[in-house]
Amino acid sequence: MARRYSGKKFLFVIFILFLSVSVSGCFYLVLGGVAAVGGYAVSPDTIQGETEKDYDEVWDAAVDVASIMGKVDYKSDKIGEISALINGARIRIDVSQLTPSMARIKVKARKSFFPSISTAQDVYVKIMRRLDEDI
Predict the structure, then answer these.
(1) If you average pLDDT over residues 4-12, what whole number do you get?
(2) pTM surpassing 0.90?
(3) What is the DSSP string of the chain?
């Protein structure tokens, strides 16, 4: 005898399939714009990249972009950390000096308990574009 599935069960199965694909690491598909400016995803909520600019230039660009896009809650140039609220997401920007002429920037974004890779990507790309404008 054939089993018949109700509409609710079918929608539930579709939802589970969608959820499993979205949680399985397919967030890399959204990162086309980040690759163009030299960034890469290090986790479902973090974009990271290196630039051949010194620490002070990267720090100033990160503070400017975070201030324009949202509300900066905390910043410390000594440890290279910025905390902000942008588009409803908690943003943490870390800037570290790798060499005298190279710095790393890491942008992490979470909305409630969930990663917000698109917000992290947007902030990262804007910081990198700001650095390119300063040439």
Answers:
(1) 59
(2) no
(3) ------HHHHHHHHHHHHHHHHHTTGGGGGTHHHHHTTEEEEETTEEEEEESS-HHHHHHHHHHHHHHHSEEEEEETTTTEEEEEETTEEEEEEEEEEETTEEEEEEEEEETTEE-HHHHHHHHHHHHHHHHHT-
Domain boundaries, the chain: 29-133
| Interatomic CA distance for residues 41 and 38, integer angstroms | 11
pLDDT in tens, 15-72: 665 555 555 444 444 444 555 556 777 888 899 999 999 999 999 999 999 999 999 9
Enter the tokens of residue 60. 């100033």
CA distance to 10, 14, 108, per residue, from 44 (Å): 29, 23, 9
Which structure tokens are listed for 14? Answer: 């579709």
CATH topology for the 29-133 domain:
TATA-Binding Protein (3.30.310)
Residue 23, token pair as written in the block? 């949680």
Instruction: Tell me the per-residue pLDDT of 83-118, one tens digit each, with 9 for 90 and over.
Output: 999 999 999 999 999 999 999 999 999 998 899 999
